[in-house]
Design a protein that fits this description.
Blueprint (H helix, E strand, L loop, with lengths): L6 H21 L3 H21 L13 E3 L4 E11 L5 E10 L6 E3 L4 E9 L11 H4 L2 E8 L3 E9 L6 E3 L6 E2 L4 E5 L3 E7 L4 E2 L6 E2 L5 E4 L2
Antiparallel strand pairs: 1-14, 2-3, 2-13, 3-11, 4-10, 5-6, 5-9, 6-7, 7-11, 8-10, 12-14
Helix pairs in contact: 1-2
């Protein structure tokens, strides 16, 4: 199954791919060049399809767990000063998504959306130290019964050109359900209360909707 945010791009890619294949058959007489163009076109289409895939994952919602909002690799676990909303120190866990990862964003916790804001910005590589404050991004805060307020930030990368965020202030959201999408390479930062028990390690692979980032008894 594919994410709805990819419908237009998938359609355009399909039309362009079919057009290239047909034109190549008509005008390219050199056999190896014809096959090279066809293979390249097929690979291009497969990459587009895999980028917008949206695997269905069964999530057992629990207020005691913070789950990974996206697929990717854990690249940051550290205490930082969160300056936009909390204006105090928080525990940051960051997940980097390469272009081959699933790019669906899922809600990490159940709760009430207290804050949701979009910021236009630059397109630095997602692992750049200033990406979280200078790149295109969205900031969402969800109030959970056990953890209190949890902030997550969708951050565009060097290839990303559009962040989709479904969270709106005042919404009640369910852990594991669709929260948005980031197109073509990105990162998500999660800001937890200090002292939160983190269940992941640096460079660990995270699976959105499955991997438990943190727990609270």
């Amino acid at each position: 199954m594919f994410h709805k945010e990819g419908a237009k791009i998938i359609f355009i890619a399909l039309v362009v791919s079919v057009g290239i294949v047909l034109l190549a058959e008509e005008f390219i007489q050199v056999f190896w060049l014809l096959k090279a163009i066809q293979v390249f076109t097929l690979v291009f289409l497969i990459l587009i399809l895999q980028f917008f895939r949206n695997p269905k994952r069964h999530v057992t919602a629990s207020d005691h767990n913070v789950i990974a909002p996206v697929d990717g690799k854990i690249v940051v676990i550290e205490e930082v000063y969160e300056e936009e909303y909390f204006k105090e120190k928080r525990l940051q866990v960051s997940i980097f998504m390469s272009p081959i990862n699933v790019h669906v964003t899922r809600y990490a916790v159940n709760g009430l959306v207290k804050f949701s804001k979009y910021h236009p910005g630059k397109y630095l590589v997602a692992w750049h130290p200033k990406a979280s404050t200078e790149n295109e991004r969205t900031t969402v805060v969800i109030e959970n019964n056990y953890f209190g307020e949890i902030l997550y930030r969708q951050i565009a990368g060097a290839l990303a050109r559009r962040i989709v965020n479904y969270a709106q202030q005042g919404m009640q959201v369910v852990q594991g359900t669709d929260a948005g999408f980031i197109k073509f390479g990105s990162r998500v930062d999660i800001f937890l209360p200090l002292g939160t028990k983190v269940n992941v390690q640096l460079n660990q692979k995270a699976i959105g909707g499955k991997t438990i980032i943190a727990t609270k008894e």
